[in-house]
Structure prediction request, 257 residues.
Amino acid sequence: MSTKKKAAEDRDLDVEQKLVSLYALQQVDSAIDRIRTLRGELPLEVQDLEDDVAGFTARIEKMTADIAEIQQNISERKAAITDLKAQIKKYEKQQKDVKNNREFDALSKEIEYQGLEIQLHEKRIKEANATLEKRNADLERVQNAKEEREKDLEMKKSELDEIVSETEREEQDLLKQSEAHKKNVDARWLHTYTRIRNNAHNGLAVVPIERDACGGCFSKIPPQRQIDIKMHKKIIACEYCGRILVDDAIKEKAADK
Prediction:
């Protein structure tokens, strides 16, 4: 075998190895992405539930303070009624000792005024009791809602802890595999792979041909270009999305890896 021919075969083999390593790297990184996505959604749900519970707690505190204020107002009005009744008794007693009609009439007006004050307080107490009843019903509803959120939060936290526990070791193993595959790819192509991954919404930088189309953007690939991809003589990217393309043979060899 001539030196040139051997060098060409070595180059072809080198390109094929890079493609295999790149596709294997993609599979491992995609598996890491799935783990982090699964784990990433739950913390957000937990955070939302914690925010809900905190919001309910703040509402309950405010509603409790409002109820206490209404109750205080009712107590003060009841105390005022007691004082007013005592004042009326005092005036009625004084009426028995008056010396003329003018003093009697003045005391009668005071008794009448105190009576009106009592009626006003009783009206306000009735209104406050109605408000108090509504506030207590609202408070009970919010407390029940908070309890439901707390149950959901406890369940989600437990689920998150379980997933973290189950996936942490798997993720560490996958990260080691990812680093091992990166060592088989030169810096230039590794940079290209990382750039494409960062720009792709699904993190796919290396994709197979599926039904004569790019597995990333699903654009049709011309027959001649498919032949070039199957030759493994150079790394070929999709003309539309820039993703690196591989054929079934590379997929199979990457799976063996």
In short: Residues 1-12 have pLDDT under 50 and may be disordered.
